[in-house]
Amino acid sequence: MALLQFMTCGLPSSAVPASIHCDHLIQAVTGAEEDLKRSLVTNAEVFDFLESAAKKYGIEFWGPGSGIIHQIVLENYAAPGMLMLGTDSHTPNAGGLGLLAIGVGGADAVDAMTGTPWELKAPKITGIHLKGNFPEHGWTSTKDLILHLAGKLTVKGGTGRILEYFGEGVFNQSCTGLATIANMGAEVGATTSTFPYTPSMRAYLHATGRSPVADAADEAAIAGYLRADDGAEYDEVIEINLAELEPTLNGPFTPDLATPLSKFPILLQEKGWKDEVSAALIGSCTNSSYEDMTRAAELARQAKNAGLTAKVPFLCTPGSEQIRATMERDGLTAALEEVGATVLANACGPCIGQWKRPESTEENSILTSFNRNFKSRNDGNQKTMNFLGSPSVVTAMAFSGKLSFNPVTDSVSTPTGEQFKFTAPVGVTLPENGFESGNPAFYPTPNPKPQPNTPIVISPTSSRLEVLEPFESHFPNNEPGELPAMTCLMRVRGKCTTDHISAAGPWLKYKGHLKNISENLLITAVNDENGEVNVAMDHDAKESLEETATDTIPKVAQRFKARNQPWALVVDENYGEGSAREHAALQPRYYGCALIIARSFARIHETNLKKQGVLPLWLADKNDYTRISSGDKIQTEGLAELLAGSRKDVFLRVTKRNGEVLLIKTTHTMSADQLKWLQAGSALNHIRAQRQS
Question: Are strands 526-527 and 486-493 parallel, antiparallel or unpaired?
């Protein structure tokens, strides 16, 4: 979608170095080779489009099977001290190399690609002081650290903040271990996470063929850069003694519900969950490094020697072609497969719902080393509970088959009836014989030059790709004014992530076709007025048109669009948490949404709404959330003055269906430039108008 937006700007190339990564469309079915072959056929038109755009604009193209964007970025592009933008919420993974890597929507990326100044509300800085090292038993890892921190901060505790880690505990971790911590900072809403430059970063840069970058970082560090200034002050400091941490599982249905492994059997009993694991999955952009895979392989070898095989489906996802090839050369792949593991393609796979699992509606529990575990996310089953853990814990539990198993203290029965206890895996930070590059076909041409005569491949009959049409401004002649009178579509109850707003899984194939993907708008959202999922009320339904009083949320939104009726949405806390998926902003805008009123917003999604010309307003009094209902008429007051630069407050005049009129105060975070986006109809409209003037 970022490319489709960039194409509308009329530029011959990107103003900054850029890369394209095809990691979202390989469905996990039988294994790496067959899954990749199948994906190349079923997604050919999407891959052809991406490759043609890369050639035309001089962008490095990492094709399907090359790996997950965040692992590739860490291996090839990340460098200490740089600023990086990426169109995925887990872009901060690159922070493992001591930089500021920030997840954004596609329209924000277009800012950078067009040379337009990119802005961000100045974040606060939370210092995370890491003391000491992990317990001697060896089962606690950086994944457990960030799972613990997620439980402490919650999914919105890092919103509007950069998490800056410091202390001796930082220097005791590997570079890829730090990347794991930075990756899951997204789960607490953090703008990004970063660390001082460490010897492990230097070693990783040398190992991945970037010695000149390491040398430059060394010089910068000697000069006093790439670390916090002496006497640096933080808005908040959190102290963590690593020696006190233990292996942790987070979930289900939210990544901030943290339970130490020693206490998990109690939770299991309290909740009445079955003490069963239905599948174990390791990998994803969070935990697919060589170090992670050597730990898993070490446990697999121990299990094999004890006569054990995995008791449940055990799926392993390498993070990149470099990791896959090195795993194969060093015997890690064989060790995993010998105990029943299936090694998947170098792609996101089940982590973002690309998993062809046998359909079921039964409650079950899976264990993963992923970063996100929202309802229905992995296999489409709302009753699948995903518990997040480290690759070591997930691997060990694959051989027990029980949620109550704790590898620190518990044993597993072998086929001969003996009791076997795993030894904590040590792991190898970097391969002794260096990284193996693997298949050269997976690598892009470095620094390609634009080929302006390359045609962009989009079929006019495609159901998966369409050229974007600019959104119209809400304001006649683009002059400052109030938003048009709106109808409230619905009031959304509780957690509403970008997965709720724009589902992933099978819908990902429509990411390049706004009309078709909009069919999934809010299909798993809960209507606060009736408690039902994917049900909206249409108080203006016409029997003559065979319209019913209730219908699915997309269907009612489509009716409003057909009537040219602008509409608004009322939402709860931390609306839009999770992925940077900008379709969650594009889809409501496509159907005519002009305003979203929230108790609070997640950072990336709020920005995405602004970019697409949807006004996000915060309720000054959160109790006013229940005062606005479906069918109410909403008008803004004070917006015209705000756009003209003479006022700050915006009120909402709400006319209830019974004629009662309410005046509700709101707040906002709109900057001067963002108000220009709203007035123009979108950020892209504003950029285009500037370039044409």
Answer: antiparallel
Q: Single out the catalytic residue among 372, 464, 500, 668.
A: 372
Cα separation values, 142 from 124, 372, 481, Å = 24, 16, 51
* Contact of 601 with 619, CB cutoff 8 Å: no
Catalytic residue among 24, 148, 491, 513: 24
Return the amino acid letter for 3: L
Per-residue model confidence as pLDDT tens digits over 625-644? 999 999 999 999 999 999 99
- CA–CA distance, 193 with 437 (Å, rounded to integer): 29
Give, to the nearest 10 degrees, the angle between helix 175-183 and helix 69-76. Answer: 140
For residue 275, indicate whether it is catalytic.
no
CB distance 84 to 661 below 8 Å: no
Q: Which of 132-141, 388-397, 496-505, 540-549 has the lowest average pLDDT?
A: 540-549
Give the span between the Cα atoms of 271 and 490, in whole angstroms: 32
Residue 258 phi/psi, 5° resolution? -95, 135
Cα–Cα distance between 472 and 685 in angstroms, integer? 9
* pLDDT single digits (tens) 563-579: 999 999 999 999 999 88
Closest CA to 589 of 556, 572, 607, 611: 611
Q: Judge if the upstream peptide bond of residue 616 is cis by omega within 30 degrees of 0.
A: no
Give percent of the chain above pLDDT 90: 92
d(CA 69, CA 319): 8
Instruction: Give the 3-state secondary structure of residue 601.
Output: strand
Strands 100-103 and 83-86, sheet pairing: parallel
User: Tokens representing 76?
Assistant: 């090839």
pLDDT attached to residue 508: 86
CA atoms within 13 A on the CB side of 613: 26
The pLDDT of residue 593: 98
pLDDT at 647 over 80: no
Check if 292 is active-site: no
**Over the chain, what is the mean pLDDT?**
96
23 belongs to the catalytic site: yes
Q: Which of 559, 581, 603, 686 is catalytic?
A: 581
* 690: confidence class by pLDDT, cuts 50, 70, 90: confident
Q: Catalytic annotation on 372?
A: yes
Q: pTM for this structure?
A: 0.90
With residue 679 as reference, give the H or E element that holds it: helix 672-680
pLDDT of 546 higher than 90:
no
Of 23, 256, 379, 538, which residue is the catalytic one? 23
3-state DSSP assignment of residue 66: coil
Rounded (10°) angle between helices 44-57 and 32-42: 80
Question: Looking at this protein, which amino acid is placed at residue 562?
Answer: A
User: Which of 66, 278, 284, 579 does the annotation list as catalytic?
Assistant: 579
Beta bridge partners of 473: none
298-321 residue pLDDT tens? 999 999 999 999 999 999 999 999
Q: How far apart are CA 503 and CA 506, in angstroms?
A: 8
Give the number of C-alpha atoms closer than 13 A to the C-alpha of residue 625, restricted to the C-beta side.
17
Residue 544's DSSP bridge partners are none
User: DSSP letter at 340?
Assistant: T
